[in-house]
């Protein structure tokens, strides 16, 4: 009986230790899977006669790009090509895609328009000075004119706008998963917006571009064209010196600004 009791306790101890080890291994694998998620790349065809200023991604193959001549294109997954959108609103100065697929643009007047049908857009904010916009989803939109930050809330088919802060806001990015707001601000460093009186600095070097995924997860491109990923307080190098062959200039140019992740970490590179 004593030996049987000893054996039972021994097996229970071994089971508990094995369970803990398996749990730790699974968490480590999950972490590295998240870190390496940006190794998935989707190469899409696009004409080489213009540069690309901005890319944004919704769900699945919901890819949108803004060219350097201020034209907006949407990837047609059936025709397997980019289709020009919002022609009547050109030049398009900025755009953003929400986690639910809602798309907004800043048009030739710098008004904010929201996509209502296949190629119809309705104005929702006529401030005439929207330099940078970011949409979380249909219910929440941020905009800035570089020194004032506004938020729009959707209620009964109308957007109500409030001024949140006055500061340096060179780029804003609403996170897909929790609607937290990241921005490039004073000194071109990255910050997490908490409220009017508190912002948490998230980078020690200046950045050119950011894309927020959650309060503890984002990617950014610094001024050395290095792509970084931020997870829970740690910046991890992803890649640097991405180049793209320019058929017009007949030379390679850095293509880091063409890199954009979706909600699942899939990266989009335009060739």
Describe this structure in words.
The chain has 271 residues and is mostly beta strands. The chain folds into 2 domains: 1-39; 42-270, 7 Propeller (Methylamine Dehydrogenase, Chain H), CATH 2.130.10.30. Helices cover 13% and strands 48% of the residues. The protein contains 1 helix and 25 strands. Strands 2-3-4-5 form a 4-stranded antiparallel sheet, with no helix packed on it. The protein has a 4-stranded antiparallel sheet with strand order 6-7-8-9, with no helix packed on it. The longest helix has 34 residues, at 2-35.
Short description:
The chain has one helix spanning 2-35, and strands spanning 41-44, 52-57, 63-67, 72-76, 81-85, 94-97, 103-106, 112-115, 121-125, 132-137, 140-144, 148-155, 158-166, 171-174, 181-184, 190-195, 198-201, 207-214, 217-222, 226-231, 234-240, 243-246, 251-254, 260-261, 267-270.
Per DSSP, what share of the residues sits in E-state strands of 2 or more residues? over 45%
**Molecular shape:** globular
Secondary-structure element pattern, one letter each: HEEEEEEEEEEEEEEEEEEEEEEEEE
- Spatial order of the strands forming the largest sheet: 2-3-4-5
Instruction: Return the structural class.
Output: mainly beta
Mean pLDDT: 79
What is the terminal separation in angstroms?
73 Å
Low-confidence stretches: 21-39, 243-252
Tell me the name of the CATH class of the largest domain: Mainly Beta
């Amino acid at each position: 009986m004593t030996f049987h009791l000893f054996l039972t306790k021994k097996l229970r101890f071994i089971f508990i230790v094995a369970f803990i080890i398996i749990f730790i291994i699974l968490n480590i694998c999950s972490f590295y899977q998240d870190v390496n998620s940006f190794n998935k790349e989707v190469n899409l065809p696009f004409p080489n006669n213009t540069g690309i200023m901005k890319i944004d991604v919704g769900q699945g193959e919901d890819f949108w790009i803004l060219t350097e001549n201020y034209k907006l294109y949407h990837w047609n997954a059936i025709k397997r090509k980019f289709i020009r959108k919002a022609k009547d609103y050109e030049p398009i100065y900025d755009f953003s895609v929400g986690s639910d697929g809602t798309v907004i643009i800043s048009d030739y007047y710098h008004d904010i328009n929201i996509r209502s049908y296949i190629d119809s857009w309705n104005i929702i904010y006529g401030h005439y000075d929207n330099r940078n916009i970011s949409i979380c989803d249909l219910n929440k939109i941020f905009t800035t004119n570089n020194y004032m930050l506004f938020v729009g809330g959707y209620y009964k088919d109308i957007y109500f706008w409030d001024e949140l802060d006055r500061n340096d806001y060179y780029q804003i990015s609403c996170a897909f998963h929790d609607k937290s707001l990241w921005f490039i601000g004073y000194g071109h460093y990255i910050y997490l917006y908490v409220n009017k009186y508190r912002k948490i600095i998230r980078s020690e070097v200046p950045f050119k571009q950011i894309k927020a995924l959650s309060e503890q997860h984002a990617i950014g491109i610094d001024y050395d064209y290095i792509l970084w990923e931020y997870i829970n307080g740690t910046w991890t190098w992803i890649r640097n010196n991405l180049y793209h062959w320019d058929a017009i200039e007949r030379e390679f140019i850095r293509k880091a600004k063409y890199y954009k992740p979706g909600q699942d970490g899939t990266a989009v590179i335009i060739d």
